[in-house]
């Protein structure tokens, strides 16, 4: 069976048009989700990969691919070669298998980054990883939907019943990978929440320290204000005649001592409360 592949997209499109395929292939290059579409005269498989989209068009005893042709197991092909659509079926299977390998590589890269920064949280890096895993989740989900669509399509160009067991294993591998990605996303969310909690605790401690510093400064200002208050009263003749010096000094000292006692009690109470927490 003729198998064509083209690294040049324009040549791939020309070949498709010569075979009577007038689908907007340029649009397929930029799709963000994998899909399989079955027509009366041909079928199209598009797989979203990290750096490009893989496209294969199946016709009777013919396939054309862009930008590569999946390598198939010739021994396996010889075992099922006499069956209808055997070669097309293996091309579809190995394309799906290769795409799944690419998704797993992307996932393992993300896991490696997580372990690298596990002890020292890097907010920007984790946000980037979270976005990458979210995008990868969408891609793997669309991959699974494509597999189910191929399985249910009963296409006359691909015969999944020839490789039913291997195809089921491929689907289970994709499901397992999706579960791992979702679990890792939860792990990142947990680490983010843990980091935000630690930042909040540190902020509360700093606010408490700042409150203590402001309180101490207030006490110092009260102590310094004693001679200033006395000097102010005795500097104004009408006020100086109303009260005795002993009364003014005693009242001012009493107020200052009372403020110091209340402030010290407040600081000790706050520290003991913090230690209990």
Provide a descriptive summary of the structure in words.
This protein is of the alpha+beta class and 277 residues long. The chain has two domains: 3-199, no CATH class; 205-276. The protein has eight helices and five strands; from the N terminus they run βααββββαααααα. The protein has a five-stranded mixed sheet with strand order 1-5-4-3-2, with helices on both faces. Strand 4 and strand 5 form a beta hairpin. The mean pLDDT is 82.
Largest sheet: 5 strands, mixed
Number of helices: 8
- End-to-end C-alpha gap: 75 Å
H/E topology pattern: EHHEEEEHHHHHH
Strand content: 5-15%
pLDDT < 50 stretches:
none
Q: Report the structural category.
A: alpha+beta
Shape: rod-shaped
**Tally of structural domains:** 2
What is the mean predicted local confidence, pLDDT? 82
Q: Could you tell me the radius of gyration in angstroms?
A: 38 Å
Total number of β-strand segments? 5
Task: Tell me the helix content.
Answer: over 70%
Tell me the strand order in the biggest sheet: 1-5-4-3-2
